[in-house]
Amino acid sequence: MRRGDVVFVQGKGIISQIIRYFDKGKFSHCAVVASHDMVIEADYNTRVALRRFQVDKYNIIEVIDLGLTWEQRSSVYKSAMGHIGKRYDYVQLLWYMIRKVFRVKGHNRLNNPKHLICSELVFLVLDEMGVLDELKIRDSFFRGIDLTPNELYDLVRYVAKSKPLKIPTR
């Protein structure tokens, strides 16, 4: 893991199982890598924070390298650190359940812009870095803050496969 990478994981706990049930994918959480053993994450039981990455907490781990330069990696880190302290958005999880159970379309009216979930944090950081503008897919995912971890995984895999990127340093 290197600063600026994105890590997707499948947790072992009950919350992870619930998220995977409604999200219908293999991942239940994602984060921005800060260093070889630290991540910046929005976790369900705390605020957005810089934490030690504990490998033993997960069944599956996948790290995606976006091919960033060191300067760009530093910018990703700074962008993610700018969200430290924001509360977790439990109501947004409720929206995912409603959306899946009732097959509701449209953007999440329950999303609080002052609170974040893990996939929203990663999307915002990628968006702030201009990754989505460069690939001209920003419009397709204009409500990217509403993506689940597995929907975001598909987007990040697409971004990683669309090399080379010329991401502006901000």
From TrEMBL:
InterPro entries: Papain-like_cys_pep_sf
Name the UniProt record assigns to this protein: YiiX/YebB-like N1pC/P60 family cysteine hydrolase
Annotated source species: Bhargavaea changchunensis
Record lineage: Bacteria, Bacillati, Bacillota, Bacilli, Bacillales
